Structure formats: structure tokens, C-alpha cells
Amino acid sequence: MCYALDNEHEMARIVKQLVADEAVFVVVMDGEHWVETTLMSGGQTLSLKAGQAAHIVSWSGVQDRIVAATAKGTVISLRQSKKGEGQTARRTPKRLSS
Fold first, then answer.
1. Among 61, 27, 62, residue whose Cα is nearest residue 46
2. What burial letters (b/e) apply to 70-94, b meaning 16+ CB within 10 Å?
3. In angstroms, how far is the first alpha carbon of the chain from the final one?
4. Which residues, listed in sequence order, are joined to residue 97 by a DSSP beta bridge?
5. Alpha carbons 35 and 43: distance in angstroms, whole number
6. Which of 27, 44, 51, 56 is paired with 33 by a 20 to 30 Å CA distance?
């Protein structure tokens, strides 16, 4: 996943938010076609068009879920990970030996 940043200060701020689960990546798809990837934090509203789905990805995996817009534009949750599922694996990266 890629996200463009303006400088190192912005990168450090966003990494802190991601690791603390205060921000999540949101990948919007329209069927099998990618629409956009963005970052969202608490309090922001997700806007989807009918037929689009958003894959929400958090650092710990606790907030991971897929939501979709119905034909009427209502956003519904399709799948949500179980609390704590994947948390250890994502928070504790394996160290590579040289």
C-alpha cells in the first residue's frame, strides 16, 4: 500500500497514528477496479457510491472490515474481523537475521 507524504514530520505523525490505531487505510473498490486509497481517522465520514466497497485496514487488525454501499447509497458492514485477530502478528514483526 502506498500513500504520498509531504515531509518526514508528516510521515512520523501518520506512523504514530497508524501504530496507535488512531488512523486506518481505506481502499475503495468499484467491483474489481481500484478507485482510491486514503487514510482516515476517527470522526471522518466515509463516502461511497452505490456498488463501491471500502476495505478498511488497521495496524493491529482490530478495526479491519469491509463496508459497501447499497443501490440506495446506504453503507453496510459486510465483514469485520474478530477483536484481537491478527493483533500479535502485525504488531510484532519478525526480525531478519543477516
1. 27
2. eeeeeeeeeeebeeeeebeeeeeee
3. 26
4. none
5. 22
6. 44
The residue assigned the cell 487488525 is: 61
Owner of C-alpha cell 478507485: 35
The domain limits of the chain are 8-82
pLDDT of residue 53: 93
pTM, two decimal places: 0.70
Give me the amino acid identity at 47. Answer: S
Which strands, in side-by-side order, build the sheet including 23-30?
33-41, 23-30, 52-57, 65-69, 75-80
Predicted confidence at residue 27, as pLDDT, reads 94
Q: What is the dihedral of CA 5, 7, 11, 14, to 10 degrees?
A: -70
The reported pLDDT for the residue numbered 74 is: 67
